[in-house]
Write a structure and sequence with these properties.
alpha+beta; 163 residues; 35% helix; 4 helices; Nuclear Transport Factor 2, Chain: A; disordered N terminus; 37% strand
Length: 163
Amino acid sequence: MRRSSIFIALAFLLGLGIGYFSQGATGVRQKDLRPADLAGIEKLHHDDLEVTLSQDPKGLMDIWTEDAVRYSAGKAPVVGRQAIGDDNAKGLAPYPGFKVLSYVPKFKNIQVQDDLATEWFEAQAIFKLSPDGQPNTLNAKGLRVMRRQADGSWKFVVLILDQ
């Protein structure tokens, strides 16, 4: 490895460290986040929680932009809001009694730049595949990119999920 490559790698890591420690305890970079942005992102978080618990097919699509992309480990990317809805339906088709019992996401390091916002998260969900089935637990983590819409609301445009 060349000396300049080592320097660049160290500078990158130092920048990450400075960025991490310059944030408040919430992980939100307050200097970059306007109150309206935070309120819109919090509304998207609330909507995501609501539609995940209810498994409302339309609601599960409405939180995405038209050009959204969802990446899940071991699967091909799902591109477009309609394709995400179709993928959701296909995944649930064998489980007509599927029910989410709880969904607890924890969002970290929310950052806003112009009309895009990023966050990483960890979430735990407890669900049943059938009404008489045993509860299952899913622990997930990932990175989400959100885009501000013309009306000021926010929607997901990219999800990179590692389950």
